[in-house]
Here is the input.
Amino acid sequence: MSQIRPVSDLRNSFADISRAVHETGEPMILTKNGYGDMVVLSYAEYRRIQHELSVVAELKEAEWESRTTEKRYTHAEVMDSLRARVRGAKRADDV
Here is the structure.
């Protein structure tokens, strides 16, 4: 569960806030005049959320494409494409 603290704590207790968001992995909600003003979270958590959002966006796009086109791929076509992409990524890592 997210902690809620006044935004002034960001200035006065930055180290405590930083430690809390890194240890718990939970965002911290900062309030101004009793209302939510901003959210602080660790960079790792931010990246995880961004990754999840990109996966969801790609799934929605695939869903939309499946409804709007008749093009279908066989299992073999998909696996061949994935293998080619993996091989290409490995070659790029070797450079």
Observations:
- The first strand starts at residue 3 and ends at 6.
- The helical segments are 8-12, 14-24, 43-68, 75-94.
